[in-house]
Amino acid sequence: MSVIVKDPLDNTYKLYLKGADSVVKARLDVRLEQTFLRKVDKYVDEFSKAGLRTLLVAMRVLEQSEVESFRASLNEIASLPGRDAAMTALAEQLEKNLTLLGATAVEDRLQDEVPETIADLLKANVKFWMLTGDKLETAENVARSCRLVQADMSLLTLRHRDASDGRAKLDQHAEVVRICVEQGRKKAYLIEGEALGVIFADPVLTTSFLEVASSCEAVVCCRVTPKQKAEVVRQVKTRYKKVTLAIGDGANDVNMIQEANIGIGIFGNEGVRAASSADFALPNFKGLWRLLLVHGRWSYVRIGEMILYFFYKNMAFTIPQFYYSFYCAFSGQTVFDDWYLSFYNMFFTSLPLVIRAVFEQDVNYKERPRGTDPRVRSKTLVERLPLKRSVYRLYYIGQENRIFNQKNFLSWVIQGLLHGAFIYFGSTYIFQTVILTRDGYNGDMWVYSITLYTCVVLVVSLKLALHTKYWTTMSLASFVVTIGFYYVYTWFANYVPFFWVYRSSEMLHSSIHFYATIVLLVGGIYVFELAFLVLRRELFTTTLDFFRHLVSRKLADNETLFTQMIEMRKPSPKGTPVTPRLETYGRL
Fold this sequence. Notes:
Blueprint: E1 2-6, E2 13-19, H1 21-25, H2 37-49, E3 53-62, H3 64-76, H4 83-94, E4 99-106, H5 114-123, E5 128-131, H6 136-145, E6 153-158, H7 163-183, E7 186-192, H8 193-200, H9 203-214, E8 218-222, H10 226-240, E9 245-248, H11 254-259, E10 262-266, H12 273-277, E11 280-282, H13 287-327, H14 338-348, H15 351-359, E12 366-367, E13 382-383, H16 385-388, H17 396-399, H18 406-431, H19 445-466, H20 473-494, H21 504-508, H22 512-539, H23 543-552, H24 559-567
Parallel strand pairs: 5-8, 6-7, 7-8, 9-10, 10-11
Antiparallel strand pairs: 1-2, 2-3, 3-4, 12-13
Helix pairs in contact: 2-6, 7-9, 13-15, 13-18, 13-19, 15-20, 18-19, 18-22, 19-22
């Protein structure tokens, strides 16, 4: 960054520039003897090794004609299409032949819980790249202090500025990475901005670099410009089709934040430019832990299961209408009243789904403790530390797409087909010969229609209730209100001649066959669903099921026992999870 000032004492114009040592030294006047250069280089190296952030400061006296020419050129390019490139070229004309003034070094202390946050994200198999403008030594020290680069990692460094040397070094690093993978060792990669510029200028080198870097657990790019930060994000996003997240707190991070799929800005001492340009704004870095490992996972679970259930409930609702077309001689007659058709998704099945999609939680590391009175809960949430330290183990659900995948989609659609067919043929068989009234009259088709419709609404509601893991007063009330509203509506339509079902509900509710049909069909599906869920949980226990079991048994508060049992769930050398014996603590 540079600034032009006018000295009030002698009316001379002076250009002051601050920046990275590699940038400033390239702009120094080689004709002059830079008195402080050697000593400044020594101090900068010492400061960098100590983890301090360093900058060099230089200046130059400008002639009056240079300033006027710069001002005129600046006005000319103000409206040009390529304004940014022209501004860069114009600045290059002034930022040369500088005299070194000195260096600055400041301590940029890490925020609270930064190492713990990065450690958990790495354990959750999240690839972490650090892009910074610091010197390589400073960047390495910061990466070690925040546990991004760990002591047991093999460290690879690339700082060559020549394309041929860089190609040879990349080939050497690729071989080292291959050996580390065979031996099961972790890798960390450090690369300077100048080397990165050479690599991105050559597509072959770019591919080689990304292959090596993507195999490393940690990557640190130092002395990079804002444009290079955005380019790194763009290359990873486009070449590997990965979801990228960029987080920063300064104006130089804006390009990177806007380029990533998800941009996060941190409110800090460097202003609010990053936060204003981001999708999410956080007060500190540790908020990333909860945003990803808790709310990010919950969001995936909620949206994935909501979409699957939406297809299921509409399939169960549509199949009876499809089969009825064969029984009505393809006349176009619908089995349901028009208003019943309209209200199915609008009122009768929507509210519980919306409430669940907003409030559903599979595992929460916080709870409201009970006081001396077991009926009274505290209003303050308390963290269960053993459970919090293991929450990262559940992040695989979204990474491996365990919920919204082709297998689950087909499973839910087939269940909708089967449930709809079972309800339709069961109701049809019963109402073909049943006598509803004491006078010996059969019901009309709308009596049959309401029975069929009621079974569908109750089955899809029970299905949603069985798969709800987090019950609140609001979720319970949504089911009660929805079913209650449906019941009120059936009686309202019964007394309004406008509806096709006029006087049908009165006859229907006076017959025991209506209630027996609901108990038989809805109860049969409910028992089958319940048995299926229990068998799946017992025979194909997932890590999530295991976590929920430990939490329900109040074992999550015993750190030693909880950690021991979770460790037993780690995959064996053959890749099969080892399930601990749970007879002592109760079956799943």
